[in-house]
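2024-03-11 09:14:02 INFO worker-7 job=invfold-0412 stage=load source=structure_tokens
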């Protein structure tokens, strides 16, 4: 594996980092303290600047208006954008759209690509992804009550979903629903495109997460599907292949998340070190940086961030060269490792800031509130640990250890 960054990518990353520091970080206090509807017009203006710089949609297909960067290069971009909460949105590579774009590109028919993929890549519309259910364990995706029953040329969808991120203001949802309940457990569900103005698509509420319901893109919704009728032609891929499509979506998606988390680690680490350097704690001018416990935290965080970063880049390289299936173990390892490193780094940075860290005068409290979910969504830590351990133990079956 070659860790060298091409001259082209160094230029791109330099431009992105400069934009993040000059255009986005100064907006954070407003972003954290003003209503979302007042911030979104500012972010859309920033999006126009990104498009003028030809840095829009870095990971999306070039034929649809993106930059078409490969996974290993976009991983570095995701790290840079992760240093601020608005980075991915402003550059047009935010979840859940990034995963839905990948699904539409790989499995959409020509009409779906023209109607949904092209405007989604352009940033003219947003989308959401409806999979997790209110009453069933998200850690076991085959447990699903939402169904889509054929009626003539249509599916009629009924069910209750939540954590449908960014549903408020979205143009359409990709819904996971059972279409073949008599089939094997992993061949029962399909993915179906549902325009959000379809009768029976009901946004019940934006779910308060750590006390904050959010709004617009920055929200997580509960959705009730009540006799929601859409054409069978809205299905993505073959009937019953929802889980196959989901795996295609989740593999690269976890690289995106993990490198965004590394970006959060880097930002939190920078804030922690700057605070330790500047915070005077005694009349003789000594600062927090003189305390050995703070020095130990700095060293430990630096080591953990570097280790986690290299793990993610290796997993991205393996996906790119051998495919997501061959990288299943690596994907599971980074999912729980990086989430825990991020939580540790954010927590220590907040501790170094003391009372100020609990406020929205810095970005740390926002990260603390909203990134705790990293250890739950896209597979809880425990699920990934079990999965990784099983794959590791397969390598010892029939193997003699000296």
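2024-03-11 09:14:09 INFO worker-7 stage=emit residues=402
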């Amino acid at each position: 594996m070659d860790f060298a960054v091409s001259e082209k990518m160094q230029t791109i990353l330099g431009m992105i980092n400069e934009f993040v520091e000059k255009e986005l970080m100064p907006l954070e206090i407003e972003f954290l303290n003003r209503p979302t509807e007042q911030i979104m017009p500012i972010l859309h203006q920033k999006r126009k600047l990104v498009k003028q710089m030809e840095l829009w949609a870095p990971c999306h297909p070039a034929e649809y208006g993106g930059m078409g960067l490969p996974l290993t290069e976009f991983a570095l971009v995701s790290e840079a954008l992760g240093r601020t909460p608005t980075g991915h949105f402003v550059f047009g590579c935010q979840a859940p759209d990034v995963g839905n774009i990948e699904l539409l590109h790989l499995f959409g028919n020509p009409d779906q690509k023209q109607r949904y993929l092209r405007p989604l890549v352009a940033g003219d519309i947003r989308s959401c992804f409806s999979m997790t259910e209110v009453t069933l364990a998200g850690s076991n995706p085959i447990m699903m009550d939402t169904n889509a029953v054929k009626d003539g040329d249509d599916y009629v969808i009924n069910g209750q979903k939540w954590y449908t991120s960014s549903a408020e203001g979205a143009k359409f949802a990709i819904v996971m629903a059972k279409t073949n309940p008599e089939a094997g457990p992993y061949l029962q569900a399909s993915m179906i495109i549902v325009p959000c103005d379809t009768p029976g698509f009901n946004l019940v509420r934006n779910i308060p997460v750590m006390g904050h319901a959010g709004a617009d893109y920055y929200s997580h919704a509960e959705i009730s599907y009540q006799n929601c009728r859409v054409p069978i032609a809205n299905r993505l891929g073959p009937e019953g292949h929802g889980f196959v499509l989901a795996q295609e979506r989740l593999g690269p998606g976890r690289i995106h998340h993990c490198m965004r988390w590394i970006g959060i680690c880097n930002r939190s680490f920078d804030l922690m070190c700057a605070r330790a350097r500047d915070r005077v704690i005694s009349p003789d001018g000594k600062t927090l940086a003189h305390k050995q416990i703070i020095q130990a935290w700095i060293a430990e965080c630096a080591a953990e961030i570097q280790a986690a970063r290299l793990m993610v880049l290796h997993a991205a390289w393996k996906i790119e060269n051998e495919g997501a299936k061959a990288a299943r173990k690596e994907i599971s390892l980074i999912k729980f490792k990086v989430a825990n490193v991020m939580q540790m780094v954010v927590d220590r940075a907040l501790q170094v800031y003391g009372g100020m860290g609990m406020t929205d005068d810095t970005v740390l409290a926002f990260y603390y509130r909203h990134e705790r979910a990293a250890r739950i969504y896209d597979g809880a830590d425990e699920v990934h640990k079990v999965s990784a351990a099983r794959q590791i133990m397969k390598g010892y079956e029939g193997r003699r250890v000296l």
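2024-03-11 09:14:09 INFO worker-7 stage=report msg="The first strand starts at residue 127 and ends at 130."
2024-03-11 09:14:10 INFO worker-7 job finished
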